[in-house]
Write a structure and sequence with these properties.
CATH topology of the largest domain: Rossmann fold
Largest sheet: 5 strands, parallel
Oligomer: single chain
Helix content: 40-55%
Strand content: 5-15%
Shape: elongated
Strand order of the largest sheet: 2-3-4-1-5
Radius of gyration: 31 Å
CATH class of the largest domain: Alpha Beta
Order of helices and strands: HHEHEHEHEHHEHEHHEHHHHHHHH
Distance between the termini: 86 Å
Length: 416
């Protein structure tokens, strides 16, 4: 059921829809090198095949899984001969290009630069991390997205009706089953068509594909999740931002995405532990204890039970009062240490175990004074109170900061 033309291609309107530069280049047969980047089943290989059907150039396909440098060089030499003797360009399609080593990718550079081949590379990994920078600079990177559920439904209906390549109208499908296939596919056209084919076999010739048929097939919903790729970073970013935004529902949803995708529970717990100090801080000092306990649970219990511990911690972080004052304070202090002037420790705070320490001046021991506080300078010269730490407006931190200010004001009025 692969599309044979751009008119049959479903989805990716932002990349190859009417009026886009890429579509115009394909239709004019003036394509430059491309890196097609997106999740499985979004249409990368299908788009390459459409290009193969529409171009007057020779189309050569190489798999990065099974090919080496010798195969690449052979394809380039054939492209050189084709251009020299026939005046015909070559489009070289490399599936899973990220699986090529640096030396294999380097073997392509000269041919791409000299226009001996027009490269089309397909990858599920971020090409800016996995494809050599010189190849990236000589290519147009086209990001492709998971198909929308409506796009998947269009493909299912086509496959049901197509007499040459599909099910030739011999099966019918209920709206509920169509919706279930689209939901289960998670934007992956290949997964949807495989499910449809299996459902037709289960229903029998001339049968009706309904939810009961899909239930008998079993299987879980397909959701893109790559433990080291973009989805990994997108989901953990959304998880953290949802806790920061005090949205427990969103935090639990993104946690579920990671649980479903088989993410390392310790990775999730580490992020919660960082969050407890970075975003909750001393607005709720108990948050770091909850996060530490969740990390211990992830470490000692593991999946599937530790999902409950992580969910409790995520909900706690989302509901906790927020303060990033400690995080801001340490970074501001580090900035001053790295770039500010050299600042000496005030003499009265220096270590006394050295000759000449008697000249440092008296250190006033706070516990010898009411409220365990005495008015003396702790910051180096050139820095004043509030230079780094500014208390948040909520929780324990706000209460204690207000109490401290009131105590200092009272003591100063009384005189030291």
């Amino acid at each position: 059921m692969r599309p044979r033309s751009l008119d049959e291609f479903v989805g990716q309107e932002q990349a190859v829809g009417p009026g886009t530069a890429l579509r115009a280049a394909i239709e004019r047969d003036e394509l430059s090198s491309l890196i097609l980047y997106g999740p499985a089943g979004c249409g990368k290989t299908s788009l390459a095949r459409v290009i193969a059907n529409t171009t007057s150039a020779s189309f050569t396909e190489v798999s990065a899984v099974s090919s080496g440098v010798a195969d690449i060089r052979k394809s380039i030499e054939e492209a050189r001969d084709r251009l020299s003797f026939q005046g015909r360009r070559t489009i070289l399609f490399i599936d899973e290009i990220h699986r090529f080593s640096k030396s294999q990718q380097d073997a392509l550079l000269h041919a791409v630069e000299e226009r001996l081949v027009v490269l089309i590379g397909a990858t599920t990994e971020n090409p800016f991390f996995e494809v050599n920078a010189p190849l990236i600079s000589r290519s147009r990177v086209v990001e492709m997205h998971p198909l929308a559920d409506e796009d998947v439904r269009v493909l299912v209906r086509r496959a049901l009706a197509d007499e040459e390549r599909g099910l030739a109208g011999k099966w019918t499908i209920t709206a509920e089953a169509e919706e279930a296939i689209a939901l289960r596919a998670g934007g992956d056209a290949r997964a949807a068509l495989n499910t449809l084919e299996q459902a037709a076999a289960e229903a029998g010739p001339g049968g009706v594909i309904d939810p009961s048929v899909l239930e008998r097939l079993g299987g879980a919903r397909q959701l893109t999740y790559d433990k080291r790729g973009d989805t990994h970073y997108d989901v953990i970013s959304a998880f953290i931002k949802s806790m920061r935004g005090s949205d427990p529902d969103a935090a639990v949803y993104y946690l579920a995405r990671m649980v479903h995708g088989g993410e390392d529970p310790k990775f999730i717990a580490r992020r919660v532990l960082i969050f407890a100090s970075e975003d909750v801080g001393n607005a709720d000092p108990q948050a770091i204890q909850v996060a530490a306990a969740a990390f211990k649970a992830a470490e000692s219990i593991g999946w599937p039970e530790c999902r409950i511990n992580l969910a409790q911690a995520a909900v706690y972080m989302a509901l906790a009062p927020k303060s990033n004052a400690s995080y801001v304070a340490i970074d501001a202090a580090l900035e001053d240490v790295r770039k500010g002037p050299a600042r000496s420790v005030p003499d009265h705070l220096r270590d006394r175990h050295r000759p000449g320490a008697d000249a440092y001046g008296p250190y006033r021991y706070p516990h010898d004074f009411p409220d365990d506080w005495v008015d003396q300078r702790y910051l180096p010269d050139g820095l004043d109170e509030g230079a780094f730490f500014k208390a948040g407006a909520k929780g324990w931190e706000a209460e204690r900061s207000a109490a401290r200010r009131a105590m200092i004001e009272r003591r100063r009025k009384q005189g030291d």
